[in-house]
Every structure is written in structure tokens, then in C-alpha cells.
Write a structure and sequence with these properties.
The structure is a homodimer of 160-residue chains. Chain A has one domain: Aminopeptidase. Chain A is 28% helix and 36% strand. The first copy, chain A, is built from four helices and seven strands. A seven-stranded mixed β-sheet of chain A has the order 1-2-3-4-5-7-6. The relative contact order of chain A is 0.16. Chains A and B meet through β5, β6 and β7 of A and β5, β6 and β7 of B. Chains A, B: Pfam families: Acetyltransf_1 (PF00583). Chains A, B: GO terms for molecular function: acyltransferase activity, transferring groups other than amino-acyl groups.
């Protein structure tokens, strides 16, 4: 697997799984009807680093972004987002991409990483805790899940 | 004191205390050098409700915004920000404005309010807890305070 910074040419390969994941409404606190144009602006807005993972055939199977979570006096706390093509799940892609982005964040001078809204029923919570993230707190009843009803949103944190 | 929704004419009266508060670098995780144009975009961007409080002479002495904290399946959790002219502090303006905005959020159908980054040395933490907010968690060592060094950022929450 190759992990690298994304180029503008990668977006059309990110969008199909981005759309599928957000439209399912189970893991991201974004509008399930988000248009491709708005999705691109969300994922690749200026000031963000964007990464992709390619499988052995060169197909883009996952993407991540890295950005400051706050500004000014708190700008050394990073935020990131991760999406793995659901058809390619369970092969270690998410873990490899996460480790790559954590290293990149440390190299960029960030002191810690925060995820602001991890749906508590998301299986990825196990990946994050295995990578050293802790749950700082949970916003109760915040997310209307299509199968589980109202669930909480974890705020997760890891020092770098 | 009159509290009302802001108009475009109010911004020039908000900016002087907005600038003073952010330039001090003690309470907001925004760039202390934020330009007036960027500040206006931050405070009054589309989709936000903006409020002002006037004193008995009609002078604008405080402002707040109200906006969804997340999108899509979590859009019923609100976020808000509050600034009181430091020259007018200690007269109950912040509390009156906060109660007004909490009522407005409830009326708009929000289920709860979250503040994402309350500097733990900010005296306003006492106001928020007295209004029923709890500290969900604290991002440690996140904020470089000019007098206190590295301090944490509280994530605060209140059901509506």
C-alpha cells in the first residue's frame, strides 16, 4: 500500500466512497445530501493537508485530511478525518493511514490530535483507542443514527 | 438593556471590543492578528444568528452568535459564542445575553448547546456553570496563554 499527499486529480476517486459513507448517515455529522462540490470544499479546503492510500493496483481506497483544530493560541492541536472505502474495509488500511497521518502531524509540529465528533457506535472507536486515543468526553444524544436512534458523540484526544 | 438580532449596521460597533478581546489572546482560539474582514466572516457567517445587547444609551456593549455545532444527523446541537465589551464587564450583561440566546436556541429546536473551546482560566467558566453547563472534558495543554502558559480547553455542554 502506498500512502501519499493527494493531488487535485485524486478527488474523483475519493468522492464515490466519501459520498457512500456520508449518505449512510452513520458516522459523520455532515448532511447526508452533501453535494460533490460541498464535499470537496469540506475535505480539501485551503490549509488542510489531504492524503490518500492506494492499493497494489494503484486504486485510491482511503483518504484523510489533517488541519489545525483551533486557531491562534491553540493552533498546535490538530484535527483529522479518515475515510476508507467500505468495500476495502478490514484490511488494515485505516490503521496504516492513521499511523501515517499521526506521524505527519507530529512532524508538522502539532502537540496533540483531537477528533470533535466520533459517533459512539462507530466501530472505528476501537481503532482509535488501540492507537492511544482516549475519550475526553461524550456529547449525549447528539447524533440521530438511522439504526441506533440517538447516540452520543465522543471527543477523542491523543498527545503526539 | 435591549437584546435584539443584529443587523449589518451593528458590525462596526462590535469590532472594537471583538478586536480587543481576540488580540489579548486569553480567551478565544483565534489568531490575535485576525483582520476586521476575517473577524466579520467568523462572527457573522451565513447560517448564524447574531445578537447584540444595547445599554440604556443605545450603545452596543456585547454580541453573541448562535449556529449549529455539527451538521446532518447532529444538527440539533447548537454552538454559540459571546463577547462583552471589557469596559462594560461585571454588570450582568453576559448573563442576560446568555439567557436570551439559550431561550432562542431552544425556540429554534436545538436540543443542547456545546462550547468547543473554553479556556480553563477564563472567568466566564463560572458564569457557564452557574447557567447549568457542565464540563464534558478538557483538551490538556491546548492553549498558549500569555500569562498562565499552557492551559486546557474545556468542552462545555448544556441540554436545552
Amino acid at each position: 500500500m502506498l500512502i501519499r499527499e493527494a493531488t487535485a486529480d485524486d478527488w474523483p476517486h475519493i468522492w464515490p466512497f466519501w459520498h457512500r459513507i456520508v449518505a449512510a448517515g452513520e458516522t459523520y455529522a455532515w448532511d447526508p445530501d452533501t453535494s460533490e462540490e460541498d464535499a470537496r470544499a469540506l475535505w480539501t479546503s485551503p490549509g488542510r493537508r489531504v492524503y490518500v492510500a492506494e492499493d497494489d493496483t494503484g486504486a485510491v481506497v482511503a483518504s484523510a485530511y489533517l488541519t489545525p483544530n483551533y486557531g491562534g493560541p491553540a493552533a498546535r492541536i490538530a484535527n483529522a478525518g479518515f475515510m476508507v472505502d467500505p468495500d476495502r474495509a478490514g484490511r488494515g488500511t485505516g490503521r496504516a493511514l492513521a499511523e501515517y497521518v499521526l506521524d505527519a502531524a507530529r512532524a508538522d509540529g502539532y502537540r496533540a490530535m483531537v477528533f470533535n465528533a466520533v459517533v459512539e457506535t462507530n466501530p472505528a472507536v476501537r481503532l482509535w483507542t488501540s492507537l492511544g486515543f482516549t475519550i475526553l468526553g461524550t456529547v449525549p444524544d447528539a447524533f440521530d443514527h438511522p439504526r441506533h436512534g440517538r447516540v452520543g458523540l465522543h471527543i477523542m484526544h491523543r498527545a503526539l
